[in-house]
Amino acid sequence: MELINARSAKLFFENKVDGEHTNIQVKQKFNTRVHYHDGNKCTCVYEVIVADVDEELPFKIDVEVVGTFEHEEDMTQTDIHIEATRQLYPYLKSAVAMLTGMSGSPAFYIRPHEIKPEDI
Predict the structure, then answer these.
(1) What does the angle CA 87 – CA 28 – CA 119 come to, to the nearest 5 degrees?
(2) Cβ(106)–Cβ(23) under 8 Å?
């Protein structure tokens, strides 16, 4: 499976947490969807949302990357979904780190995320 192109579709970061040394606990939620096109091509949308555990603090990261792929004819949709997200993960991770780092905050690195067949 070959990645043809990738782009950041959504970049949102809000951090209005008061206090220079405030520690917060965050949760991460990943969303993925794959759209299939004619000619063995597909588009994968991969999103991560990071927010404080209780969703009470004004802290949120919402980043979405989109990749277009060409896949082999004999690949199952499950295999395509898993491979597309595996290939897009580094783009998602770097987009989050870049966005948070450019804001003047320390760069935030999302945890590894692996999709399993039963998750699809």
Answers:
(1) 55
(2) no
Question: CB–CB of 66/45 below 8 Å?
Answer: yes
- Asked if residues 58 and 17 have their Cβ atoms less than 8 Å apart, the reply is yes
Q: CA 42 → CA 6, 16, 60, distances in Å? A: 12, 38, 29
0.70 exceeded by pTM: yes
Three-state secondary-structure class, residue 118: helix
CA-based angle 101:103:105, to the nearest 5? 60
**Site of tokens 């905050």:** 105
Question: Where does 1-120 have alpha helices with state H?
Answer: 77-102
Max distance between CA atoms of the chain, in angstroms, equals: 54
Average pLDDT, the chain: 92
